[in-house]
Amino acid sequence: MHAQSSQSTPHYGMKYFIRILFFALLLQAFAGCHLERIDALNVECPNPPVANFTVSTTSISLSESIVITNLSDPDAATYDWDFGNGETSKDFNASTSVTYNTAGTHEIILIVTDAEGCSATTRKTITVANELKFKTVLNLGSFGGIPLGAVERSDGQFHCLYNQSGIIKSVVMNPMNIDVTPSPVTIPVDINPNIASAHEGGFIVAGSKGNLAKVAVIGANQQKTNIEKEFQFTGASSSSAWGPVMNSTDEVICTGYRNNSNQFIPGLARISSSNSVTSPSVNNSNLNNYGGLSVVEQAGAAGNYYIAATKLNPYGGSASLLVSVSQSGIYGSHSSLAPITVAYKIMHLSGSTYVVIGSDNNSGKQYLIVVKPGGNQTWSLNMMTAVSDVCISNSDPSKVVVLGTAGNALGMAQINLSTGVADWDEFYSLADGSITGISIAPTSDGGYLTGGHYNHGGKNDFYLIKTNSTGKAE
After folding, report:
1. Are residue 22 and residue 66 in the same domain, yes or no?
2. Co-location of 115 and 162 in the same domain
3. Rounded distance, CA 24 to CA 290, Å?
4. Which of 49, 61, 177, 241 is buried most, with the most CB atoms less than 10 Å from its CB?
5. Which parts of the chain sit beneath pLDDT 50?
6. CATH code, 74
7. Three-state secondary-structure class, residue 471
8. What is the C-alpha separation between 355 and 346, in angstroms, rounded?
9. Cα–Cα distance for residue pair 450/465, rounded to 1 Å
10. What is the number of domains present in the chain?
11. DSSP state of 287
12. Within 10 Å of residue 29's Cβ, how many Cβ atoms?
């Protein structure tokens, strides 16, 4: 038995050895073939084409463009572009300018292929901030018109309202295609407008019709709503409405002036959704010869209001008062808004704090007053020669952005209410005319939409500016 076992050992060892040798040779052969294949692939494209391009910038805002320059081999067979915005091309100079209408990151890919089928790929990433920026002139026709305001609608379109020879007209702009002139819609409202306040993508217009005050609400859909009313302030022989806003119970509140034999008194009226008017008599000898230009509901005291009143007679704009009244017209108190002599607007900021902007007709200076418990703070707006509107800052609700005019330019500035210092200011002008600021409204992307009155060559047009969060439009 031992002899048989010792004789079989070499037999099995040789068998296993042959098998191992066979598999080793097979692996070597396979590896050799694989290496030969790799070498063959390298031989196919010893000099692949060059794929390269530059972009003017890698960081832009919505609707802005970048410039692309192709630096690839000019003799390649094909150029396949993907711009990351849904557009493609096969041209060498596919596009010198590419625009992005959606925020985020977008990758530009270029694949260059030569006549032998060899290719090379290069990529660049473009970051698009969620900020629209542009300036444009809305041509209001051969006779022009007077802008009343501009506001962003909930669908992102821009609603602009203007008065053309006594006819109220509205245009809605696509901010992604500002080169398309929108068709105006005539609003069937018979009113001589003094001012318009933005409201839910539309406007509340205040003014007069004959010797009556009048208000009308125009919806975001460019249609007149059911609120349209002409009325007389209590005790007046003639009236004119100013400073319309919507209160907490969805009534239109307006101030203005009531005139009796050139004796002016501030007016106050509430107009309900059914067009019923409540016009309490605001009587106090301290208010004689004053008229209201702006009104706001008092925070935490529904039905009570602050009126920013300006002395109209004699010497119009010689003083201004902050007047507190109840919705029944009961006079509460008044305080001076000096050095402001013409108070254009009062706005609620937060809590018990309000902001008033206006001018001093004596010095020509512009001011912002922070009205709050414990005493007012007054800041000089030295960058402006006139002020017209104010809104809460989109970036910091404790600050405001003021719209005005500086010489022939439209100006805007963000004001730190604790110091009165401007965090930033920007000015926009056109060489052939003057621009007066009319309205400013925050937009959903963190920027601002500004409307201006562009007067040039005896013609009036609408200067529309969309800025980013720091007032830049370019």
Report:
1. no
2. no
3. 107
4. 241
5. 1-12, 14, 16-18, 20-27, 29-43
6. 2.60.40.10
7. coil
8. 6
9. 5
10. 4
11. G
12. 10
Question: Tens digit of pLDDT for each residue in 244-281?
Answer: 999 988 999 999 998 877 788 899 999 999 999 998 87
pLDDT at 390: 98
| Same domain, residue pair 108 and 181 | no
Nearest one of 256, 259, 287, 289 to 271, comparing CA atoms: 256
Q: What is the pLDDT of residues 319-337, one digit of tens each?
A: 999 999 987 777 888 999 9
What is the C-alpha radius of gyration for the chain, rounded to an integer number of angstroms? Answer: 35
- Bridge partner list, 206: 195, 215
What are the DSSP E strand ranges found in 381-421?
386-392, 399-406, 409-416
Q: How far apart are CA 383 and CA 375, in angstroms?
A: 25
> Quick one: 38 and 144 in the same domain?
no
**Residue in the structure block whose two tokens are 């206006």:** 358
Assigned token pair, 94: 């596919």
Burial 264-292 (b: 16+ CB within 10 A, else e): bbbbbbbbeeeeebebbbbebeebebbbb
DSSP state of 468: -
In the Cβ-directed half-sphere of 63, how many Cα atoms lie within 13 Å? 17
Pair of tokens at residue 329: 């017209």
Residues spanned by the domain of 31: 1-44
Query: Quick one: which of 321, 353, 323 has its CA closest to 340?
Result: 321
Asked whether residue 293 falls in the same domain as residue 168, the answer is no
pLDDT of residue 12: 44
Which strand (E) or helix (H) includes residue 318?
Answer: none
Show Cβ contacts of residue 371 under 8 Å, excluding neighbours closer than 6 positions: 306, 322, 346, 353, 354, 355, 356
| Nearest CA-CA partner of 290 in 324, 261, 267 | 267
One-letter amino acid for residue 179 of the chain: D
Give the pLDDT confidence score for residue 45 in this predicted structure: 82
Q: What's the gap between Cα 297 and its chain centre?
A: 25
Q: Which two tokens stand for residue 353?
A: 């704090």
